Structure formats: C-alpha cells, structure tokens
Amino acid sequence: MDLSAMLTNDYDYETQQSAFTYRLITTPKQGTVAQGVYAFEADLPTGTRDTLVYQVGEVRGAGDTLWGGASPGSADQTLPRQWHLQRSLPDCHS
C-alpha cells in the first residue's frame, strides 16, 4: 500500500496538495514500511488490522515543514495480498 494515499484526505487551497508530505509517528506492528510502501507480513489471515499513526505536513521551504496533528489510520487486510486504508479520526488541522 502506497502510504502517500494518506494525503488524499487533506487539501490546501494555496498549494492544491503539491507541498504535502507525511511522516509515520508509530512503527507498524503487523507489517513493514520500505520506500513509502506498507506491506503486511506474509501469511497473515484475512481481517488482520494494523494501526498507523501519522502526521501530514506542508513543506514551506528547505528544513521548514508545518506539521498538523497526529492522525491514526488503520490498514486492513481484506483479502490475501489486498488492503485498504481508513482514517480512524477526522482530520482536525487546517
């Protein structure tokens, strides 16, 4: 799962999402992240859920990022080798 999909829930009228980035606050427990892609560990049963806590930020310049509040999201393995990402709480930052 490409973690940049988390950015689709956020919008900025000035940059139209072009300056958004994200960072993970917690380490996944049921999978791994490599090069911005989350993958469940092999052979986990359907219905396995992992929680990812992350922040979305707006890059304003080199070394200058305005970070929003932390948001938990869940990754669910709905079928073998398939998943979906769902935000657990609504975005509270502007």
Largest sheet geometry: 5 strands, antiparallel
Number of helices: 0
Radius of gyration: 14 Å
- Catalogue the unreliable spans: 89-94
Percent helix range: under 10%
**What is the approximate shape?**
elongated
Helix and strand run: EEEEEEE
* Mean pLDDT metric: 77
Number of strands: 7
Q: How many domains in all?
A: 1
Distance between the termini: 26 Å
How much of the polypeptide forms β-strand, as a percent range? Answer: over 45%
What class, by secondary structure content? mainly beta
Descriptive report:
The protein has 94 residues and is mainly β. It has one domain (3-87). It is built from no helices and seven strands. The strands form two sheets. Strands 1, 4, 5, 6 and 7 form a five-stranded antiparallel sheet that branches.
List the helices and strands and how they pair.
Elements lengths: L19 E5 L6 E4 L2 E4 L8 E13 L2 E4 L3 E9 L2 E6 L7
Antiparallel strand pairs: 1-4, 2-3, 4-5, 4-6, 6-7
